[in-house]
Design goal:
The chain has eight helices and no strands. It has 136 residues and is an all-alpha fold. The protein has one domain. α1 crosses α3 and α6 packs across α7. 30% of the residues are buried.
């Protein structure tokens, strides 16, 4: 239950304008968001941390807040997950898609590209192509 309430923070952030989102992410997010996000994605925290270029050990040690960088990377993963769920129809399909190599991404898993913003944008571009009825 706590994890669902924690990721509700991310759901609320997902709906606010980018100009406000920047300020919120710069201020950091509650540390409990990261393990809750990993649980929502059905991934071990270690796998998600590695995919985002973060130290799972450091994240585990966080008691109060994620740094701005940790918050931004966590939100990046959440943003891609939400878009995948919208395009593919539900969260279970999104979880499977994010963890499966995709031909349009050079046989790489979308999760593996989230370490950089440019990778996340490429994943979002593929999702846009799927949404438009074409798959690259």
């Amino acid at each position: 239950m706590f994890g669902i309430m924690t990721t509700a923070v991310l759901d609320r952030l997902y709906r606010i304008p980018g100009s406000q989102l920047v300020g919120r992410l710069n201020a950091g997010l509650p540390a409990a968001i990261f393990p809750a996000l990993a649980a929502r994605l059905h991934l071990p925290a270690k796998v998600l941390a590695s995919a985002l270029g973060l130290s799972e050990r450091t994240l585990r040690a966080r008691k109060r807040k994620l740094t701005a960088d940790e918050a931004e990377r966590s939100f990046r993963a959440f943003r891609v997950f939400k878009r995948a769920a919208a395009v593919l129809g539900d969260e279970d399909e999104a979880r499977a898609w994010i963890s499966t190599p995709q031909r349009a991404l050079g046989e790489r898993k979308p999760l593996d590209l989230l370490v950089r913003d440019v990778g996340a944008e490429e994943v979002l571009n593929v999702l846009a192509a799927i949404d438009d009825g074409g798959y690259l």
